[in-house]
Design a protein that fits this description.
The complex is a heterotrimer of chains A (167), B (108) and C (550). By secondary structure, chain A is of the alpha/beta class. Chain A has 6 helices and 8 strands. Chain A has one domain: TIM Barrel (Alpha-Beta Barrel), CATH 3.20.20.70. In chain A, 29% of the residues lie in helices and 19% in strands. Chain B has 108 residues and is of the alpha+beta class. Chain B has one domain. In chain B, strands 1, 2, 3, 4, 5 and 6 form a 6-stranded antiparallel β-sheet that branches. Chain C has 4 domains: 105 residues, Sulfite Reductase Hemoprotein, domain 2 (Alpha-Beta Complex), CATH 3.90.480; 148 residues, Sulfite Reductase Hemoprotein, domain 1, CATH 3.30.413; 74 residues, Alpha-Beta Plaits (2-Layer Sandwich), CATH 3.30.70; 137 residues, Sulfite Reductase Hemoprotein, domain 1 (2-Layer Sandwich). Chain C is α+β, with helices and mostly antiparallel strands and 550 residues long. Classes of the chains: A alpha/beta (167), B alpha+beta (108), C alpha+beta (550). Chains A and C meet through α3, α4 and α6 of A and α1, α2, α5, α6 and α9 of C.
Chain lengths: 167, 108, 550
Amino acid sequence: MPLVKSGTIIADPFTAVADDAPLPDGPTIVSAARLLANKEALFARNVALGVAWPNNRDVAELEPLLPRLALVALAFPKFRDGRAFSQARLLRERYGFTGELRATGNVLRDQLLMMARAGFDAFELEKAADAGTVHRALTSYSIFYQPTGDGRRTAAETRRAAKGRLA
Amino acid sequence: MTSPLQRKLKIAGPTAITANRLADGVVVWLTAGGGWSLSIGEATVATTAEEVQRLLAIAQSDENTAVGAYAARVALTPEGHAIPVNLRERIRVGGPTITPAASPARAA
Amino acid sequence: MYVHDAFDRTFLQERVAEFRDQVARRLSGALTEEEFKPLRLMNGVYLQLHAYMLRVCIPYGTLNSTQLKALARVARRYDRGYGHFTTRQNIQFNWIKLAELPDAMAELAEVGIHGIQTSGNCIRNTTTDAFAGAARDEIEDPRLYAEVIRQWSTLHPEFTYLPRKFKIAITAAKHDRAATRVHDVGLRLRQRDGHTGFEVMVGGGLGRTPFIGQTIRDFLPKEDLLSYLEAILRTYNLGGRRDNIYKARVKIQVHEMGPEAFAEKVEAEWQAIRDGALRLDETAISAIADRFVNPDLPPLADHPPELTAALAEPAFARWHANSVAPHKAAGHAIVTLSLKPVGGPPGDCTADQMDAIADLADRYAYGEIRVAHEQNLVFPHVRQKDLPALWKALDAIGVATPNVGLVTDIISCPGLDYCSLANTRSIPIAQKLTERFADDARIADIGRLHVNISGCINACGHHHIGHIGILGVEKKDEEFFQITLGGKGNSKARLGELIGPAIPESEIVDAVERLVETYLELRTSPQETFIAAVERLGIEPFKERAYAPR
C-alpha cells in the first residue's frame, strides 16, 4: 500500500493504532471513537495526531478539533462508495482544514483526480502498480466545469479571462 | 421474477455456464475443457449444485476472457447437446425475435 | 443550440483518451471487471444480452444535422446500421464491440457528442421539453438552464459515486413534456414579480418503487439553481441508503425522512453555500446564453396558402392534426417525426433514415433536430409553407405515420430482445398493437392515448405513467403482462392502477383492444379523451371488459 503525497511516494510517518493498542511514540492515527473519548490526553502528547474518520459520521463533529489535528483519513470502503468526497469538501471548504487529508481503503488510480479535486492531498493506494501513475492520473484533464475548493480554474473562469484579454 | 444475474443459485435439471466475451460481448458457453465456445451445443452440462458451483468458479476466474458468467438452465438433445430452454437463452443464442431495421416507407 | 468551444472539445478529447486507456487496461487484465464496470457505465457502455451497448448522450435532446450524420456513421461503421432513441432523449447502439468503442467515441467527440454520464451512479443527462425554444406555451427556453446544469454536473468530483443514479428534468412550459414529476429532481421554470426561478420537486421516479416528486421549494431564484442542486446532491450523497441497491435512489431517502425533513436538511446545507462560487450572476448566465445560436426566423404569417391548399388532402390533414404543433413564431410550426411505424420497433431509426432526416433538417428546419421523451424526433422550427413538401419527404422515409400522441405512439423499452435485465419482451407487443391499430382513421377517432410498455419492473418503458401501462412479468418461462390504467406523466402526474392479474402474451393485444372499445362505448363524446374517461369512470368498467371473454 504505497502512500503518495503531493505527487510523490513517501514513507508513512504515521502509525495507525487499534483502539485497544498502546500509543506509539511518533505521529499516530486513532479512530474517531478514541479521539472523541480521550481528546485532551491525546492532544497533550504533543506528537502529530491524525484521525481515521468513518464515512457515515458527520464531519461537523470534527470542526472544533481540526486546528489541532495534523491529519484526517477518510475511508472508501469500496471505490463506489463516494461519501468521503463530500466529507473532504466540507473539511476543506467549510471547516478550513489545512492538514493532510488522506484517502484510504479501496483507493484506485481512476478516482484520484476526483479525490484531489475534492481536497485530498494524500492517497493510500491499494495497488502498488498504481503508484507510478499518480501524476498521469492527476493531469489527465485540463478542463474542469465546476468550482471546488481545489483552486483549479473552471472552464467558465478561463473563458471569462480569455474574453477579458481580447476586450 | 428477477434476471438470472440477480438470482440465487438453485439447480433443477441440466445447467450450462454462459457469459459474454470481454472484447466484443458475444455470447459464449463454458466447455468441458474450461474454454469458451460460441456454440451452446459445445457447452458442458452439469446437473448438481456442486458441479455447477465448480464450473462457475472456473468461469469466473477467467473474467479477462468472458464476463458476467452465470448458470443457465438448458435442455438436452437426444445426442446430449445443450439447447436453450427458456426465452432469454433462446434470444441470447438466436438473436432478437424482431427484425431490427425500421419498416419501409408507407404509401401516402 | 449550444455551440461547443475549444474548452468543450478539449474536454471531450481528454475523456476519450482516458477511456481508451481504461479499455486497454481492462483488455490487458490490469483492471478487473468490478473496477471497470462503473467506469464504462459512466461512458454509457452497458453489457447487454448479445453485445455491448453504447448510450450516447444528446444533451437536453438537441442535435444538429452534422451530429445526426455522425450518429448515422457510427451506426454503420461500428454497429448494425440503426440506433434506438430512448425516453431520456438519448440514443443507443446495440451491437458495439468494446475494443472498438474508443474509436467510435472519438468520432462522436469530433462533433461534440459523447456517452458521458448516460449510465452509472452519477448525475445523468438533464432532459427537457423537446419543443424548448419553439413552444408557444413556454416562459423561457429551459435549455439554457439545462446547459448550466450539464456543465456543473459533468464529472462533478463530489457526485460521481452516488448511492445510485440521479436524473434531473426541467420544463418551462405549461404542458410538461419532460415528465418532471417522475425524476429525482424536477425543475419547473416560473416567473415571480418579473424574476425567473424554479419550482423544485424531488424524489419522483418509476422503477420498482414508483413515486411522484414532492415540491420542496415553490420558487428558487435562478441565481441559486446550482447551489441548491449541490445542497440536494450533498444531502443525498451523504445520507442516501447504500445498503440495498433497490432502496438507494433519492426517492427512498425522501420517502423515509419525509419531504419536510429532507427539505429542511437541504435548506440548511444550502444556506451554507448559496453565496459561494456556484452563485449564477448575470455574467455567468449570459456567458452560457451567448453560446446558444438560435435560428433567425423570418417574419411570416400563419396559414400560408400552400398550407391551406394541402389541408384539403385528407392524408395530409390527418398527419397535420397530430404531428404539427403551434410555434411561438407566426408562420412557423413544430413537427414531430414519428418513429412508430406500423410493425416497427418504437424509437428505432436506421442510419439511412438519420442521414435523410439530417438533410431534411438542413433544408426545412434550420439544421436542428430534437429527441422527444416519447422516442420520436422533432423539427422544432419549420416554415408552415414548407409543411406539405416536408410531409411528402418524411413519408418517403417512413417517419410520417400520422399517430403522434395516439394509441400507436407507444413508448417501449428494448425488453428481452436486447436487455439483460428484462423479464419479457416488449417491442413485439408494441409491434402487434401497431398492427392491430393500423387504421389511421380509427386511431384518430380514438384520440389521445398513451400506451407505455416495460419488459421488467425497472420501468424503462414508463408503464406507470401510461394511460394504459403494460408491464411484462415472467411465470414459469412464459411471458405475461400486467395492465395499469390511468397513469399520467404530465404536470398532474399520477401512477396507473393495476386492473388485475397478468394476462398471457397471446391475449394482451386483445385485452388492450377491449379497453379501447370500452372507452369508445362509454365516452360522453369524442371530446372526452381516454384518460378523462378513466378518471370519470374509474377502472371498474374497464377491468370487467378487459378480462371478459376468456
